[in-house]
Automatic annotation (TrEMBL):
Family the entry assigns: Belongs to the LysR transcriptional regulatory family.
The keyword DNA repair belongs to this UniProt entry's keyword annotation: no
Superkingdom per UniProt: Bacteria
Gene source species: Paraburkholderia hiiakae
Keywords associated with the record: DNA-binding, Transcription, Transcription regulation
Coiled-coil regions listed: none
Domain HTH lysR-type positions: 1-59
Protein name, UniProt field: HTH-type transcriptional regulator PgrR
PROSITE patterns named in the record: HTH_LYSR
Gene name tied to this protein: pgrR_7
Organism placement in taxonomy: Bacteria, Pseudomonadati, Pseudomonadota, Betaproteobacteria, Burkholderiales
Amino acid sequence: MDRLQAMKIFTRVVETNSFTRAADSLGLPRANVSVIIQQLETYLKVRLLQRTTRRLNVTPDGAIYYERCVRVLADIDDIESSLENRGMSPRGKIRVDLPSALGRTVLMPRVHEFHTKYPDVDLMLGFSDKPVDLIQEGLDCVIRIGALQDSSLVARRIGLYQGVTVASPQYLEQFGTPNSIEELQTHTSVNYFWARTGRFMEFTFDVDGNAVSIPVKGRISVNDAEAYVAAALEGLGIVQAARFMALPHLQSGALVEVLEQWKPMPMPISVVYPHNRHLSPTVRVFADWVAELFGASDLFKDVDVRERFLRHQAKHQSAENAETFGDATGQPIA
């Protein structure tokens, strides 16, 4: 039995809470994973995992062994990384999950540049508008919008998200233009609901540095960012969409910004990864590249957004953030 391999497999089973998910993330047959865990338990003469037909629980001995394995594997990664030839480019495979709208609008048009710069790194990009668990899904990192809620994760800010309140000219011609936040309650909106909870998103506005939320009503509800903007283009109501998605339509006149003096609260865009997992050279170069990508994008260059974000952050630094308009689909950052 390869004890190092067994330790890697055991930690992945614990992190994903599944033999099947661990096998998939490691590229191994499920039967092999099960056999190796049994061999490891036999070698150690302790039960590491308690298996039932419906649940997989870590035993007290398994929890202790897991914590030691994490440290040992991280030390090994550090040793190997320090001995790598600095002239060699990073190599390997990384799994990344990011919001569909961000991925299609910002990442995919430039992803060829990453492969030109790092030809030996294979990217597995998942475009998801649903909350994902980094550990259970075997992901190396994710890109999220909003405040970091999970203390077991590390977030590196790469940009700022700005929402914008918009409607089509047809809608405004038929129903009029709201002149105050309160007037929104007499208008029709498109409802956005969180897939995880089914709860509708309220419109939020920055009023003198404070976040003000307004419930809105609508006849159609969606949980997809692109469908949300499409509904506004069809004149179905007012929406509060991501600026980077609405900008081309604002420039063409297909959408019109309303309540311009009250912007939605800006939020950080971050690369997020588990703090107890070694940040590999491949993940590090991806994080560096995507930070440069967002920093150079005209879609996120707005001095006013940055200034308002910094003012709000300074004013409410000690306050806890509520659930945010996560990844332009309403999910929290983690």
